[in-house]
Amino acid sequence: MFRFHLPLCPVTVLTVLVGMSWSACSPVASGDDPKKPNIEELVKQLGSDDFETRKQAIPALITAGLPAVKPMEEAAQGPDLEVRFHAVTVLAALSRTTDDATSAAARKALEAVAAGKYPDASGPAKDALKFFVRPDQMRKLALQFPLVQVQGGQKKKLELSEKSIHRFVDVDRYVTDGTLWVFGKGRPAAVIEIYPAGPGNEEDVWYSAIASLSAHPLVSESIDGVEGRDWNPEPWQGTFELLPKAPKPAAAAGDRLVEMQTLSRRFAAHQFWRPGETRYELEVLPTPALRYADEKEGIVDGGMFLIVHDVNPEVLLLLEAQATKGTTTWKYALAPLGSARMHVQLDKEEVWTCPTPANVIGGGKHPYWALQRTLVK
């Protein structure tokens, strides 16, 4: 992903906080039940003069789940400014939980706070609610990037995935909410990131980063409805290499998934960012963002793993069980999804590097492009 520096503000802090995982947080226990959090006490801690006390109360209230929703709604509309801010943070996190009842209740509470009399609480609450409308906006932006693949002189319009395959934040780089989409069936022909520019833009300004994974030419014309704003990248030069010391792919799909995940852990990566050539360590997410197959192309099973900074994709790792002349083997390929210099190691030995691409903001022929966007109403 292309990196833009943005000023940090309370709204950004809120969005980053609720994008984090709180699964490791433990509730503060009450005297009666060591497993049950004392929510009343935790609410008091939100207004503590001690920073560490406040910091511990936030994840504990998130862990409490549904019972914390109503007290947080009341706190978010109460007299204490700092408590209001932290209460909205908790409600925003609870609205994104996988528990439907908790999520629905927290979302309703945020709507009430957003309509309240305190701007310092209603503003962040409105911002938190944008989480639920952004996917539709981001899909519209992806659709405004029409993509055609050219094979044998024939043009074929590529379908966009119905839903994003990954949602991400990047605390260090002030990316508060982003999504990743794919074009094409089977192994994707391209992937595209969509994310808002950040605070102060009212989300009229967005950014995208697109990368080709197609050995055939791609063409995109009149992007965002702007005549002359085109992308005609050179074919992707990525090659699939035999994965050494890999087992024969299993017959069952579930077993192959386990094999993929095990194989992905053999990879490590880092990047260097200019200016300064600062080194950043990257991490391979343990579960593929996309699973695919293509009998015609000899792909028995494939997984797209994301190599990330925070949870922001920077490199794509494709692991495929490929059938060739009656033999099925595990192979891998790598592709950049960022404008830094990338390095990937397999079993601690470097197997792939990608230089910083020149003029990525200008588009043109490069298979990676970062660009500023406008959502067409």
Q: What does the model show?
A:
By secondary structure, this protein is an alpha+beta fold. It is 27% helix and 29% strand. Strands 8, 9, 10, 11, 12, 13, 14, 15 and 16 form a nine-stranded antiparallel β-sheet that branches. Strands 3-4-5-6-17 form a five-stranded antiparallel β-sheet. Strands 2-1-7 form a three-stranded antiparallel β-sheet, with no helix packed on it. A hairpin with a 4-residue loop joins strand 9 and strand 10. The longest helix is centred in the N-terminal third of the chain and has 15 residues, at 81-95. The radius of gyration is 23 Å and the shape is globular.
- Could you say which overall geometry the principal axes of the C-alpha atoms support? globular
Uncertain segments? 1-32
Order of helices and strands: HHHHHHHHEEEEEEEEHEEEEEEEEE
Helix content class: 25-40%
Hey, roughly how much beta strand do the residues contain?
25-35%
Count of domains: 2
Mean pLDDT over the full residue set: 87
Major beta-sheet overview: 9 strands, antiparallel
Beta strands, count: 17
Number of helices: 9
What secondary-structure arrangement, pairings included, does this model have?
Blueprint: H1 10-19, H2 39-46, H3 51-64, H4 69-75, H5 81-95, H6 100-114, H7 119-129, H8 134-143, E1 148-151, E2 154-157, E3 166-170, E4 175-183, E5 190-196, E6 206-212, E7 218-219, E8 241-242, H9 253-264, E9 267-273, E10 278-284, E11 290-294, E12 299-309, E13 312-324, E14 327-336, E15 341-346, E16 349-354, E17 368-373
Antiparallel strand pairs: 1-2, 1-7, 3-4, 4-5, 5-6, 6-17, 8-14, 9-10, 9-15, 10-12, 11-12, 12-13, 13-14, 15-16
Helix pairs in contact: 1-5, 1-7, 2-3, 3-5, 4-5, 4-6, 5-6, 5-7, 6-7
